Amino acid sequence: YTDTTLTPGAYTGAQINAAIVTRGNGANAANHNRLIARNCTITLTGEEGISLVGRSFFTLALAGSAIALHTAGGGNASSGFFLVDTHNTTIRGGTVTGQNSDTGNANGYLQVDEQISAAHVRARCTNIEFDGVTWDSLRGFGVWLSTDSGGATEWPEGVWMHDCSTRGGWLGFAIVAGRRVLIEDSLFTDTMGTGLDLEPDLVGHGYEDVLVQRNTYRRFAWEAVIGGHTSWLVAANANTAIGAAALAAVPGLRLTFRDNLIPEGHVIAGQGGLLIRMNKANPKTDTVITGNVSSTARTVAGGCVFGNALNNLTLTGNTQVTSGGVNLY
User: Fold this and answer.
1) N-terminal to C-terminal alpha carbon distance within the chain
2) Cβ contacts of residue 320 below 8 Å, gap of 6+?
3) pLDDT in tens, 41-72
4) Cβ atoms 256, 138 nearer than 8 A
5) Helices marked H in the chain — which ranges?
6) From CA 120, how far away is CA 41, in angstroms rounded?
Protein backbone atom coordinates (compact mmCIF):
# COMPACT_ATOMS: atom_id res chain seq x y z
CA TYR A 1 0.00 0.00 0.00
CA THR A 2 0.90 3.63 -0.50
CA ASP A 3 -0.75 5.34 2.46
CA THR A 4 -2.12 8.67 3.51
CA THR A 5 -3.14 8.68 7.18
CA LEU A 6 -5.52 11.28 8.58
CA THR A 7 -5.06 12.47 12.14
CA PRO A 8 -7.92 11.15 14.30
CA GLY A 9 -10.47 13.94 14.70
CA ALA A 10 -13.69 15.38 13.27
CA TYR A 11 -14.17 15.63 9.51
CA THR A 12 -16.93 16.54 7.08
CA GLY A 13 -17.85 14.46 4.08
CA ALA A 14 -16.34 17.15 1.86
CA GLN A 15 -13.01 16.86 3.69
CA ILE A 16 -12.93 13.07 3.37
CA ASN A 17 -13.81 13.27 -0.31
CA ALA A 18 -11.06 15.82 -0.90
CA ALA A 19 -8.57 13.53 0.82
CA ILE A 20 -9.70 10.61 -1.38
CA VAL A 21 -9.12 12.66 -4.52
CA THR A 22 -5.73 13.86 -3.29
CA ARG A 23 -4.59 10.32 -2.49
CA GLY A 24 -5.51 9.31 -6.04
CA ASN A 25 -5.65 5.88 -7.64
CA GLY A 26 -3.22 3.03 -7.21
CA ALA A 27 -1.19 1.70 -10.08
CA ASN A 28 -2.23 -1.95 -10.07
CA ALA A 29 -3.33 -4.84 -7.86
CA ALA A 30 0.08 -4.99 -6.21
CA ASN A 31 0.11 -1.29 -5.36
CA HIS A 32 -3.10 0.02 -3.87
CA ASN A 33 -3.37 3.58 -2.70
CA ARG A 34 -4.91 3.67 0.76
CA LEU A 35 -6.54 6.44 2.73
CA ILE A 36 -6.49 5.60 6.43
CA ALA A 37 -9.16 7.47 8.40
CA ARG A 38 -9.27 5.40 11.56
CA ASN A 39 -10.80 6.52 14.84
CA CYS A 40 -12.34 9.59 13.24
CA THR A 41 -15.74 11.24 13.53
CA ILE A 42 -17.13 11.92 10.07
CA THR A 43 -20.39 13.80 9.43
CA LEU A 44 -22.05 13.51 6.02
CA THR A 45 -24.51 16.31 5.20
CA GLY A 46 -26.16 17.86 2.15
CA GLU A 47 -25.51 15.61 -0.84
CA GLU A 48 -22.03 14.71 0.37
CA GLY A 49 -21.88 10.97 0.94
CA ILE A 50 -18.42 9.44 0.74
CA SER A 51 -17.64 9.41 -2.98
CA LEU A 52 -15.46 6.74 -4.53
CA VAL A 53 -16.46 7.65 -8.07
CA GLY A 54 -13.67 6.85 -10.50
CA ARG A 55 -11.39 5.24 -7.91
CA SER A 56 -9.28 2.23 -8.83
CA PHE A 57 -6.83 0.09 -6.86
CA PHE A 58 -7.95 2.02 -3.79
CA THR A 59 -8.63 1.12 -0.15
CA LEU A 60 -10.55 3.26 2.34
CA ALA A 61 -9.69 2.12 5.89
CA LEU A 62 -12.24 3.32 8.47
CA ALA A 63 -11.78 0.99 11.46
CA GLY A 64 -12.90 2.70 14.66
CA SER A 65 -14.52 5.62 12.84
CA ALA A 66 -18.08 6.80 13.50
CA ILE A 67 -19.80 8.13 10.38
CA ALA A 68 -23.03 10.11 10.76
CA LEU A 69 -25.22 9.67 7.67
CA HIS A 70 -27.17 12.96 7.82
CA THR A 71 -27.42 13.66 4.10
CA ALA A 72 -30.41 15.36 2.48
CA GLY A 73 -31.52 12.65 0.06
CA GLY A 74 -31.55 14.78 -3.07
CA GLY A 75 -29.94 12.01 -5.13
CA ASN A 76 -28.02 8.75 -4.93
CA ALA A 77 -24.83 10.60 -3.94
CA SER A 78 -26.53 11.02 -0.55
CA SER A 79 -25.82 7.36 0.18
CA GLY A 80 -23.18 6.53 2.75
CA PHE A 81 -20.84 5.40 -0.03
CA PHE A 82 -21.36 6.25 -3.70
CA LEU A 83 -19.53 4.37 -6.45
CA VAL A 84 -19.62 4.78 -10.24
CA ASP A 85 -16.84 3.61 -12.58
CA THR A 86 -15.05 2.34 -9.48
CA HIS A 87 -12.66 -0.62 -9.78
CA ASN A 88 -10.62 -2.83 -7.45
CA THR A 89 -11.68 -0.85 -4.40
CA THR A 90 -12.14 -1.91 -0.77
CA ILE A 91 -14.09 -0.19 2.02
CA ARG A 92 -12.89 -1.64 5.31
CA GLY A 93 -14.40 -1.04 8.74
CA GLY A 94 -16.27 1.90 10.17
CA THR A 95 -19.76 2.35 11.64
CA VAL A 96 -22.27 4.35 9.61
CA THR A 97 -25.33 5.53 11.54
CA GLY A 98 -28.36 7.00 9.79
CA GLN A 99 -31.28 9.02 11.10
CA ASN A 100 -34.11 6.50 11.17
CA SER A 101 -35.11 6.88 14.81
CA ASP A 102 -37.79 4.19 14.46
CA THR A 103 -35.50 1.39 13.33
CA GLY A 104 -36.79 -1.77 14.97
CA ASN A 105 -40.50 -0.90 14.80
CA ALA A 106 -43.09 -0.43 12.08
CA ASN A 107 -42.88 3.37 12.08
CA GLY A 108 -39.40 3.08 10.61
CA TYR A 109 -41.12 2.48 7.27
CA LEU A 110 -42.50 6.02 7.36
CA GLN A 111 -38.93 7.38 7.29
CA VAL A 112 -37.77 5.40 4.26
CA ASP A 113 -35.82 7.38 1.64
CA GLU A 114 -34.02 5.18 -0.89
CA GLN A 115 -31.66 8.01 -1.85
CA ILE A 116 -29.98 7.68 1.56
CA SER A 117 -28.84 4.09 1.27
CA ALA A 118 -25.94 2.30 2.93
CA ALA A 119 -23.98 2.24 -0.32
CA HIS A 120 -24.96 2.66 -3.95
CA VAL A 121 -22.79 0.74 -6.41
CA ARG A 122 -23.68 1.91 -9.88
CA ALA A 123 -22.65 1.58 -13.48
CA ARG A 124 -19.46 -0.15 -14.60
CA CYS A 125 -18.07 -0.84 -11.13
CA THR A 126 -15.86 -3.94 -10.87
CA ASN A 127 -14.23 -5.80 -7.98
CA ILE A 128 -15.70 -3.93 -5.01
CA GLU A 129 -15.24 -5.21 -1.44
CA PHE A 130 -17.14 -4.24 1.72
CA ASP A 131 -15.18 -5.69 4.63
CA GLY A 132 -16.40 -5.39 8.21
CA VAL A 133 -18.58 -2.32 7.68
CA THR A 134 -21.46 -1.68 10.11
CA TRP A 135 -24.58 0.27 9.11
CA ASP A 136 -27.32 1.19 11.59
CA SER A 137 -30.61 3.13 11.61
CA LEU A 138 -30.78 3.31 7.83
CA ARG A 139 -33.50 5.17 5.93
CA GLY A 140 -32.68 3.86 2.45
CA PHE A 141 -31.67 0.46 1.14
CA GLY A 142 -28.70 -1.48 2.37
CA VAL A 143 -26.01 -2.00 -0.28
CA TRP A 144 -27.69 -1.41 -3.64
CA LEU A 145 -26.41 -2.44 -7.11
CA SER A 146 -27.78 -0.77 -10.24
CA THR A 147 -26.90 0.87 -13.56
CA ASP A 148 -27.22 4.39 -14.93
CA SER A 149 -29.55 3.67 -17.84
CA GLY A 150 -29.79 -0.10 -18.19
CA GLY A 151 -27.81 -2.34 -20.47
CA ALA A 152 -25.75 -5.38 -19.53
CA THR A 153 -22.44 -3.59 -20.18
CA GLU A 154 -23.18 -1.28 -17.23
CA TRP A 155 -23.83 -3.95 -14.62
CA PRO A 156 -21.69 -3.79 -11.47
CA GLU A 157 -19.54 -6.91 -11.40
CA GLY A 158 -17.53 -8.65 -8.73
CA VAL A 159 -19.07 -7.22 -5.55
CA TRP A 160 -18.07 -8.95 -2.30
CA MET A 161 -19.69 -8.13 1.03
CA HIS A 162 -18.46 -10.02 4.08
CA ASP A 163 -18.40 -9.70 7.86
CA CYS A 164 -20.72 -6.69 7.70
CA SER A 165 -23.82 -5.69 9.65
CA THR A 166 -26.84 -3.86 8.23
CA ARG A 167 -29.61 -2.74 10.59
CA GLY A 168 -32.73 -1.02 9.31
CA GLY A 169 -33.27 0.12 5.77
CA TRP A 170 -35.99 -0.65 3.27
CA LEU A 171 -34.11 -3.65 1.82
CA GLY A 172 -31.21 -5.53 3.38
CA PHE A 173 -29.33 -5.93 0.08
CA ALA A 174 -30.75 -4.91 -3.31
CA ILE A 175 -29.73 -5.95 -6.81
CA VAL A 176 -31.36 -4.19 -9.73
CA ALA A 177 -28.51 -5.28 -11.99
CA GLY A 178 -25.32 -7.13 -11.14
CA ARG A 179 -23.15 -10.17 -11.76
CA ARG A 180 -20.64 -12.14 -9.69
CA VAL A 181 -21.99 -10.98 -6.34
CA LEU A 182 -20.93 -12.68 -3.09
CA ILE A 183 -22.67 -11.86 0.21
CA GLU A 184 -21.41 -13.91 3.13
CA ASP A 185 -20.92 -14.05 6.89
CA SER A 186 -22.97 -10.91 7.46
CA LEU A 187 -25.88 -9.85 9.67
CA PHE A 188 -29.12 -8.23 8.51
CA THR A 189 -31.42 -6.94 11.25
CA ASP A 190 -34.74 -5.06 11.40
CA THR A 191 -35.15 -4.68 7.65
CA MET A 192 -38.29 -2.68 6.81
CA GLY A 193 -39.08 -4.79 3.76
CA THR A 194 -37.26 -7.74 2.14
CA GLY A 195 -33.93 -9.14 3.31
CA LEU A 196 -32.51 -9.85 -0.17
CA ASP A 197 -34.22 -8.23 -3.14
CA LEU A 198 -33.35 -9.01 -6.76
CA GLU A 199 -35.63 -6.72 -8.76
CA PRO A 200 -34.68 -5.71 -12.31
CA ASP A 201 -36.42 -2.45 -13.16
CA LEU A 202 -35.79 -2.23 -16.91
CA VAL A 203 -35.09 -4.42 -19.91
CA GLY A 204 -31.30 -4.67 -19.75
CA HIS A 205 -31.30 -5.24 -15.99
CA GLY A 206 -30.96 -8.65 -14.32
CA TYR A 207 -28.65 -10.74 -12.20
CA GLU A 208 -26.05 -13.44 -12.81
CA ASP A 209 -23.96 -15.56 -10.47
CA VAL A 210 -25.17 -14.39 -7.08
CA LEU A 211 -24.03 -16.41 -4.05
CA VAL A 212 -25.53 -15.61 -0.63
CA GLN A 213 -24.21 -17.82 2.16
CA ARG A 214 -23.77 -18.12 5.92
CA ASN A 215 -25.59 -14.90 6.73
CA THR A 216 -27.94 -14.28 9.65
CA TYR A 217 -31.30 -12.54 9.23
CA ARG A 218 -33.07 -11.17 12.32
CA ARG A 219 -36.50 -9.59 11.88
CA PHE A 220 -37.66 -8.41 8.48
CA ALA A 221 -40.87 -6.98 6.98
CA TRP A 222 -41.66 -4.26 9.53
CA GLU A 223 -43.43 -2.47 6.68
CA ALA A 224 -46.00 -5.28 6.54
CA VAL A 225 -47.39 -4.16 9.90
CA ILE A 226 -48.65 -0.85 8.53
CA GLY A 227 -47.98 -0.86 4.78
CA GLY A 228 -49.94 -3.88 3.69
CA HIS A 229 -47.20 -5.60 1.69
CA THR A 230 -46.16 -9.08 2.73
CA SER A 231 -42.38 -8.65 2.30
CA TRP A 232 -40.06 -11.62 2.14
CA LEU A 233 -36.76 -13.02 3.22
CA VAL A 234 -35.81 -13.26 -0.48
CA ALA A 235 -37.60 -11.87 -3.53
CA ALA A 236 -36.39 -12.45 -7.10
CA ASN A 237 -39.07 -10.81 -9.21
CA ALA A 238 -38.74 -8.19 -11.92
CA ASN A 239 -40.62 -4.93 -11.61
CA THR A 240 -43.98 -5.38 -13.33
CA ALA A 241 -43.65 -1.87 -14.78
CA ILE A 242 -41.37 -3.49 -17.38
CA GLY A 243 -44.50 -4.96 -18.93
CA ALA A 244 -45.54 -8.58 -19.26
CA ALA A 245 -44.29 -8.93 -22.84
CA ALA A 246 -40.77 -7.82 -21.89
CA LEU A 247 -40.27 -9.94 -18.79
CA ALA A 248 -38.73 -12.79 -20.78
CA ALA A 249 -35.86 -10.47 -21.71
CA VAL A 250 -34.88 -9.90 -18.08
CA PRO A 251 -32.48 -12.67 -17.03
CA GLY A 252 -32.00 -14.17 -13.60
CA LEU A 253 -29.12 -16.63 -13.75
CA ARG A 254 -27.50 -18.77 -11.07
CA LEU A 255 -28.75 -17.49 -7.73
CA THR A 256 -27.57 -19.62 -4.81
CA PHE A 257 -28.97 -18.96 -1.33
CA ARG A 258 -27.45 -21.43 1.10
CA ASP A 259 -26.64 -22.10 4.74
CA ASN A 260 -28.25 -18.92 6.02
CA LEU A 261 -29.80 -18.66 9.50
CA ILE A 262 -33.08 -16.97 10.35
CA PRO A 263 -33.35 -17.06 14.16
CA GLU A 264 -35.97 -14.28 14.06
CA GLY A 265 -38.01 -14.02 10.87
CA HIS A 266 -41.05 -12.15 9.59
CA VAL A 267 -42.19 -9.71 12.28
CA ILE A 268 -45.86 -10.71 11.91
CA ALA A 269 -46.36 -13.59 14.30
CA GLY A 270 -46.78 -17.02 12.78
CA GLN A 271 -45.21 -16.36 9.37
CA GLY A 272 -41.89 -18.02 10.15
CA GLY A 273 -38.72 -16.95 8.42
CA LEU A 274 -38.18 -19.05 5.29
CA LEU A 275 -40.23 -16.97 2.85
CA ILE A 276 -38.97 -16.80 -0.73
CA ARG A 277 -40.87 -15.26 -3.63
CA MET A 278 -39.90 -15.92 -7.26
CA ASN A 279 -43.34 -16.08 -8.85
CA LYS A 280 -43.36 -13.52 -11.64
CA ALA A 281 -42.76 -14.36 -15.29
CA ASN A 282 -39.15 -13.22 -15.57
CA PRO A 283 -37.11 -16.41 -16.13
CA LYS A 284 -34.96 -17.65 -13.23
CA THR A 285 -32.42 -20.28 -14.28
CA ASP A 286 -30.23 -22.54 -12.13
CA THR A 287 -31.53 -21.40 -8.76
CA VAL A 288 -30.26 -23.23 -5.65
CA ILE A 289 -31.89 -22.85 -2.22
CA THR A 290 -30.30 -25.21 0.26
CA GLY A 291 -29.28 -25.63 3.88
CA ASN A 292 -31.15 -22.60 5.23
CA VAL A 293 -32.63 -22.83 8.74
CA SER A 294 -35.52 -20.77 10.10
CA SER A 295 -35.99 -21.38 13.81
CA THR A 296 -38.86 -18.86 13.94
CA ALA A 297 -41.93 -21.11 14.14
CA ARG A 298 -44.50 -21.10 11.35
CA THR A 299 -47.94 -21.32 12.99
CA VAL A 300 -50.15 -20.63 9.98
CA ALA A 301 -50.48 -22.93 6.99
CA GLY A 302 -48.89 -21.83 3.74
CA GLY A 303 -45.95 -22.09 1.43
CA CYS A 304 -42.35 -21.19 2.07
CA VAL A 305 -41.30 -20.82 -1.58
CA PHE A 306 -43.50 -19.36 -4.33
CA GLY A 307 -42.19 -19.89 -7.84
CA ASN A 308 -42.89 -19.33 -11.53
CA ALA A 309 -40.70 -19.41 -14.64
CA LEU A 310 -38.08 -21.43 -12.77
CA ASN A 311 -35.69 -23.42 -14.91
CA ASN A 312 -33.63 -26.00 -13.03
CA LEU A 313 -34.51 -25.27 -9.41
CA THR A 314 -32.67 -27.11 -6.59
CA LEU A 315 -34.60 -26.90 -3.32
CA THR A 316 -33.19 -29.20 -0.66
CA GLY A 317 -32.07 -29.45 2.94
CA ASN A 318 -33.91 -26.39 4.24
CA THR A 319 -35.59 -26.24 7.66
CA GLN A 320 -38.66 -24.27 8.68
CA VAL A 321 -39.78 -24.99 12.25
CA THR A 322 -43.56 -25.29 12.65
CA SER A 323 -45.94 -25.30 15.57
CA GLY A 324 -49.53 -26.43 16.04
CA GLY A 325 -49.45 -29.07 13.34
CA VAL A 326 -49.68 -26.60 10.43
CA ASN A 327 -48.97 -27.74 6.89
CA LEU A 328 -46.36 -26.22 4.63
CA TYR A 329 -47.29 -26.41 0.98
Assistant:
1) 54
2) 272, 273, 274, 294, 298, 304, 328
3) 999 999 999 999 999 999 999 999 999 999 99
4) no
5) 13-23, 223-227
6) 22
